[in-house]
Amino acid sequence: MSLFQAQLYPGQALGFLVLGASLHDILTRIKAEPQRFPKIDLAFSQNAPIEEPVVVNLPSNGVRLRFDGPEQRLRLVEVVDFTKIHITFKEANHERDLMRPAAEPTATGPTFKHIYNRFLGPTYDGEFVPGSEGGKDVGTYVLSYPGVAFTFPMAPSAYSPDKDVMSLLSHNGTQVATSMAVFSGDTWAQARDTLWDEALPSLKTFAPLSKGSKDASPDDVTLVRIHGGGKLQLVRKWSGVGDAPLPSTWIILGETTPQDLVAELGPPDAIYRRNEQRMYIHRVRGASSSHGRRPNSGDVKPGSHDNLTDTDMSSANALSTDDGDYDSRDDDDEAVEDDAAGNVAGECFYNYFYLGFDILISTPRVPSQPPPGIDEPQVPRDRTLPSESQDRLVATKMILHGNVPGSYPFNRHRRCRWDIAYLDQPTNSETPFPETEERLGSAWKSTYLSEADAKQRQRGMVLNRGWGDSPGSSIEFLGGWEGEVKSSARKTDAIGADNSTTTLYGYPGLVFEVLRNGFVSALTVF
């Protein structure tokens, strides 16, 4: 195993581990170097995977990474074993080593004298954190610099608020640091209070990335606002010039062209053609049986009834879940003739793995009806070109991925946050589905014949992504739109993925894929 070498950028990064980077970006980079990072441990809350922090441990490298739950952005980088990493700091073209593990095999960490006199220089006094057992155990002294801090063990009897840092840490018993933290803030004491919800700057403000590094990323889409009627607003948090926010990008299903997408979002990370033969029976059922249709399916025009049950995520299977390599089984899907698969010529998914969504490109289809009693949003028409030809390819469906730890497709896409703009109460990607279900039921209540009719049409359909006989779609339906079926989930070797059975719930223009813990794994908008 090659030693992990990383340059320290206080308040910004440790090597390529940049504060504000997404969980998907970091894991993808780490998994691409198995010789350097042979072991990855992921820790998250089973009951609140998108509310509580997500922790990535790299035990072979002595590093621990902490991400917030809702945004999945890197908030804290910790070094917990200095013998497994070579850290440098560069200032005025002069590079200094924190510690050289190869040259100092007996050392367990950098000394206070080296940090204070040579590596970073003097700083203000730190803070003493008492140990457990009423302060009887050994405590911790935190030495803070702007954006970086070191911890030293200290007995309660050795600490006195009247002593300065030199007096406290210059004697032999407490002079070796046990850990280091990289964070955003002036001191660790101040940063703790805002660690998980501070508004982090764009990655493009980090100089090594802004100078044309291969790790440079496109502008983040921080939120997708769903307005109904096939209208989606893509919001960017960070500015383009100065403090002026970038204008929203609008996607109008049935109108926005592939050229529009590339102009606004850049070229897709991949293009995937799907095999939908196994979905045909559900389309026939949806077109011929009123019991199989979603609410107001009579308003959906011919040619679009496949949207009622199709939450195809074939795009997510272009990469293996284990090692990121291309799955050769998918060649079978690519090789299927379009007419044999029931596809129109050119129909495909545009995969934006690093933005967190997929977009289906096909011939124009009439999008779902707008919500009842809601004024349609004012869309700047100069940002999309309406389609005039029925043979022209346009965006007809968008799949927003939650990247929920514990879900089967975890880390195939970054997390895409969304909200439903036409609901009275705030409803977003962090809202538990039972609450979302109640609010959507109220919003669409006038479109149902009765309460019994509403319940009948909102039953769940169980989906299993763990059965490997369908690499093109990974879709298995257990029964029809029945209630949730209890079934054991197959564990996989994918990081953080151990739940392959989910349930689909449909509303006009929306299909939710819901995990057993009640959180939304993916949302399809059509």
Architecture overview:
The chain is of the alpha+beta class. It has two domains: 4-210, no CATH class; 223-525, no CATH class. It is 15% helix and 26% strand. It has twelve helices and 30 strands. The strands form six sheets. The protein has a nine-stranded antiparallel β-sheet with strand order 19-20-21-22-30-29-28-25-26, with no helix packed on it. It has an eight-stranded antiparallel β-sheet with strand order 4-5-6-7-13-12-11-10, with no helix packed on it. A hairpin with a 3-residue loop joins strand 1 and strand 2. The chain is elongated and about 80 Å long. 41% of the residues are buried.
Features:
30 strands, 526 residues, alpha+beta, 8-stranded antiparallel sheet, 2 domains, 15% helix, single chain
Quaternary structure classification? single chain
Helix proportion: 10-25%
Can you tell me the residue ranges where pLDDT is under 50 for at least 5 consecutive residues?
277-344, 468-493
Tell me the radius of gyration: 26 Å
> What's the overall average pLDDT, rounded?
78
From the N-terminal CA to the C-terminal CA, the straight-line distance is 47 Å
Number of domains: 2
- Largest sheet descriptor: 9 strands, antiparallel
- Strand content of the residues, in percent? 25-35%
Strands ordered across the widest β-sheet: 19-20-21-22-30-29-28-25-26
Structural class: alpha+beta
Strand segment tally: 30
What is the count of helical runs? 12
Shape: elongated
